Amino acid sequence: MSQSRTFRDGLLAEIPNMRAFALSLTGKSDRADDLVQESLMKAWAAHASFVEGSNMRAWLFTILRNAYFTELRRKRREVEDVEGKHAASIAVAGEQAGHLDMADFQNALVQLPPDQREVLTLVGASGFSYEEAAEICGVAVGTIKSRLNRARARLASLLSIGDVSEIGPDRATLAATSPPNPGQPGL
């Protein structure tokens, strides 16, 4: 198999993970899709700089993260819904309680500071180790752990969760609010 075909297949395999990460950063599916597309185009343009055998997933997430923060810096003058008043006014109709719980979780996740939301998504949802997340974010492992701890505490506060037993059976919600198992990466 040619090197460009292997590279292309690697890119395609990571699109769902990239989209999930982009969605957690932006909070909007259309912005997330644009961010993933931009990141894929940048990755394709820079494919000659990718070292075969290295961690493509971390490389792509770094590109996506950098593109996100570049976009964020460009839009500093725009008014954002920081306190979530507009987001809170949007009704979410659901047939099952899980949909409502997930909507509450997503609203709370968007209220986290970007650095905490980013680490929570990298370590919890995307399965990166603390070390990999630190490399992607360009910070120390201790910083990742600190941001993660603050993110967990803030999420629990926003969701009014006093104990893990108060959380429904939704796996994504449990993963975001439960401490990691010893020896395994997690939140």
TrEMBL record:
Residues 104-155 form the RNA polymerase sigma factor 70 region 4 type domain. NCBIfam families: PRK12547.1, sigma70-ECF. Signal peptide: none annotated. It comes from the Bacteria. PROSITE patterns: SIGMA70_ECF (PS01063). This is RNA polymerase sigma factor. The lineage of its organism: Bacteria, Pseudomonadati, Pseudomonadota, Alphaproteobacteria, Hyphomicrobiales. The keyword Magnesium does not apply. Keywords: DNA-binding, Sigma factor, Transcription, Transcription regulation. CDD domains: Sigma70_r4 (cd06171). InterPro entries: RNA_pol_sigma-70-like, RNA_pol_sigma-70_dom, RNA_pol_sigma70_ECF_CS, RNA_pol_sigma70_r2, RNA_pol_sigma70_r4_t2, RNA_pol_sigma_r2, RNA_pol_sigma_r3/r4-like, WH-like_DNA-bd_sf. Belongs to the sigma-70 factor family. ECF subfamily. SUPFAM superfamilies: Sigma2 domain of RNA polymerase sigma factors, Sigma3 and sigma4 domains of RNA polymerase sigma factors. Residues 16-77 form the RNA polymerase sigma-70 region domain.
